[in-house]
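Worked Example 4.2. Read the sequence first, then its structure tokens.
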Amino acid sequence: MDNGKLQIVAILGALVLLLVVLEMVRRRRLMERYALLWMLSAVVILGLAVWKDALNVLAKALGVASPPNALFFIAVAFILLLLLHFSAAMSRMADQSKVLAQRQAILEERLRRFEAEHAEAPPARPAGRAAADDEPRTLARSSSR
């Protein structure tokens, strides 16, 4: 594959990645804060695909002899940063899950105690109803039998 075709494939791949990320955000399958990381990576790929000499400039700036090695170095660094970010997010979620489980257990215990206390007492009558209100119904039932 010549350089022109490779450049077109890289540009199309970056654009597809951008569209997929935007569609996932639209469908609420990807949170915005994570989408920003993926959009940034797609923009970097797009920039490298459009600007042919970007890898050469990048390699010289990093002091790397070969442009593909500079690309691999940046890709590995970016992947490590993503892994660190997602590890921190997972740690935070694990802590939140633990706190949520503890709160749920406390609420379940309170509910159990509440039900135990109120199960022994007879049900309370609604306000404004006296025991005499029930008499006509019982008389009517007994007379209809």
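Now turn to a second chain, presented in exactly the same format:
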Amino acid sequence: MFKGLVFLTALPLMFAIGLALQGRLFPLELSQPLVALAAIADFGIGLPWVFARAFGHGAGNVVAVTYEYGNSFLIVAGLLNMLVVIDAWDIALGRK
């Protein structure tokens, strides 16, 4: 249970830090494979992504010094959330 609370706190916090560092929530553009992969990774955080998009956050500022750090926080938060979901699924099935 403690591990779940840590992830419940840490992942949205990472996402919020990424937005605060002026990172970009990438659009799903299939013509650009790396942008599409970044968009899928961003979407992996789930509900915070929906709220950020709904309120107009995540436009990104390419000239900001922290832009790439923000992108990294956003992408890693989404990917780590996907891993947490897969881990929870394995525990529910009794594989762990």
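Notes for the reader: The radius of gyration is 14 Å. Residues 42 and 75 are 5 Å apart (CA to CA).
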